[in-house]
Amino acid sequence: MSGPVPVAKSLEDIYPPTAIASEIPRWNNLLAKFEKEFGHPAEFISRSPGRVNIIGEHIDYSLYSVLPMAITADAIIAVSTKPAAADATTFKVSVRNVQDGKFAPGEFDVPIGSEVEIDSTKFEWTNYFKSGLRGALGLLYRKKGADFRPCDMEVLMDGNVPVGGGLSSSAAFVTASALAVMAANGESTVDKKELTELAIVSERAVGVNSGGMDQSASVFSEQGSATFVSFTPGLSARPVKFPPTRPELCFVIAQSFVTSNKHVTGPIHYNLRVVEVSFAAAYLHAVLNPPGTQLPEDAGPLGISLQGFHDTFFYHNGGSDYAAAKSLTKEEELRRLVEVTKETLTREDGYTREEIAAVLQMSVPELEQRFMARFPVRADRFKLRQRALHVFTEALRVLEFLTLLERPLHTGATDTTQFNQELGRLMNETQDSCRDLYECSCPELDDICRISRGAGAYSSRLTGAGWGGCSVHLVPADKVQAVKEALEQQYYAKMDLTDEQKEQAVVVSRPARGSAVYIVE
Ligand code: NG1
Ligand code: MG
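That is the input. Now the predicted structure with NG1 docked in place:
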């Protein structure tokens, strides 16, 4: 899956055949509107999709592997460029949105040679473009040297991933923006890994300490396959196919229409969880690893991770028997870590700052400076036990899920219901763990899961960050209609939805392609 982001020659290189008819007018509209707005045609379009996560929730920022897939909905960005004037000290970017009633235009002058500033306290849609711009410029300056002069850009964007809906409209927009900036500045071939890495880091500038799952799914994905993403050692992604089963499996995506805005709730939800798992890593390390050893710095948002603790633990003592521990499989290691967490982090009611600081041998202000200064969080007690248990059990479920998918299946005339049910069981356990241990579900998502399972889904769970947003369901093809109707009658009927929302509420989704650049002829 590595290599350059593909340059598409036609929409057939980007979308599945079933989507082409509706994408042609959308792309034509983008190009026509660009010409109308800026008075000349666009030179190219960059494109990056949203994603749905199949399994591996809230473990990417602990650097455990995850299994998302890209969806067809995406961000498309039309671009024209102009070289920076010889004596200019700044370059200009003009960003507009096809839905100009909803998203006001932005113009900014960026000083050449310096970092793009983003005010993460303001929730502006153009921040996502700026974040892609900031990451791409960083890479361009590193590659081309300090004399590099970025070009002026005119940009028109159209996104159809629902915003705040858990399908990662943000990562689609950030990666498409970063790709647009690279292509605008003469990098016609952009390495997928480089693009993803810069998008992961730069999206954090918008105010959320996120992991790297969404950007990876958005950039690397291939049509027809889910994407297995690993973060250590280094970022990598590979396609994973679902074997053909009878009955056929469908991925159904259902919106809760509960909007979760991470920029508002970050201090008590997402960013707080990142702090809690980082605390858990530091705490387990301090108690269980030899005194004087250091947790290695890694790509976790706060510089350490539960995966880092995991590796150090088995390297140093493997639970007091290194020789035996060395031959453990990854699954066995994770099971051992579940035991060790239960023995070590015994407090169900959480830990105070004072308690954590004492174990880490630092003062409370030092603790706050180290873990809570970048993004504020609000909590008196930190539930290290529950959060670590979620992460280790979820990391284990991802490996078990992958093993199931890659085990040879005797299909043909065979009924593979049992296989489908096993996949479903793991995803349902994810939902239970998200609800009970990670506390990132909400009553509406719990309702949706109950209704859908009752109507014949093998599994139903929240997908993405949770606290609202979207859910994903594994449904046998012959039950899709029943699931849809049950959700309509028992969930959506109680809500006041527009016709457009009703239409988008439940959709069947297939694994779609990742990022691409399309040159306008
Ligand atoms: P959403 O909020 O669904 O885009 C977030 C994070 C992911 C991952 C999931 C939970 C961002 C950009 N993405 O996804 O990295 O941690 O939650 O598994 O914040
Ligand atoms: Mg997002």
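The chain is about 40% helix and 15% strand.
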